[in-house]
Design a protein that fits this description.
It is a single chain. Strands 1-2 form a two-stranded antiparallel ribbon. The protein is mainly alpha-helical. Helix 2 packs antiparallel against helix 5. The chain has one domain.
Length: 219
């Protein structure tokens, strides 16, 4: 299935930046980020442990390049709360005040730098969503997996969670077709600016982005 996806959803012809320049930027940026942000990440980890206990990190399998699964790591922002039937409560009920603060400043994303060092993610690319979304994509939407998923991306600097799923996927595919060093640097700069201004953090009326159920329900 992964090999088939890789064949069908290959991106544009690879130039130097796609072949090796992007990976070099990712590795240098992630290692530098981990070195500079280590004290901040340690402080966040301590806060999460004091307020929510263990585990400090949230781990979840997500689709990576060509849909291949990998384990995403983030700081935990939700408590493990269940209803009377043993099902997880809605996100709005599980998201803690600390978790809201971490998300507002995008601090929960910092451990993903480890995913970048491992080569599972890029600094810039379409956000890794959920494995069970894969069968719901149209062939055009599936093209978002022709590149490594990113900590930030073109969709994130154009509305982030305030944009509809269709708008986000169109921007993800546009990024795949226009990937370049200049575009990645532009997105990184815009991401820092938006994080400082805390723009586009949540969808209206939602603690987190609503579930993607397929284009038929949104068209």
């Amino acid at each position: 299935m992964v090999e088939q996806a890789a064949h069908v959803y290959a991106g544009p012809p690879a130039g130097f930046y796609r072949r090796c320049g992007k990976r070099a930027l990712d590795l240098a940026g992630a290692l530098l980020g981990l070195a500079l942000l280590a004290p901040l990440m340690g402080g966040v980890a301590l806060l999460v442990w004091l307020r929510m206990g263990s585990p400090v990190l949230f781990r979840q399998v997500r689709p990576g390049l060509h849909g291949a699964p990998f384990t995403l790591i983030k700081f935990r922002t939700m408590r493990a709360a269940l209803d009377a039937q043993g099902r997880p409560l809605p996100d709005a009920d599980r998201l803690t005040p600390l978790g809201r603060w971490l998300r507002a400043w995008s601090l929960d994303e910092l451990p993903e730098l480890v995913n970048v060092v491992r080569g599972e993610m890029s600094l810039v690319g379409p956000r890794p969503l959920l494995m069970h979304y894969l069968p719901r994509y149209t062939p055009e939407q599936m093209r978002r997996h022709a590149v490594c998923p990113g900590i930030t991306g073109w969709a994130q600097v154009h509305g982030r969670n305030l944009a509809s799923w269709e708008e986000r996927f169109v921007r993800d595919v546009w990024y795949v077709d226009h990937l370049s060093l200049g575009l990645d640097l532009r997105i990184l700069w815009q991401t820092v600016w938006m994080a400082l201004r805390r723009q586009g953090i949540g969808a209206p009326g939602q603690a987190t982005m609503e579930e993607f159920r397929g284009s038929d329900e949104h068209g």
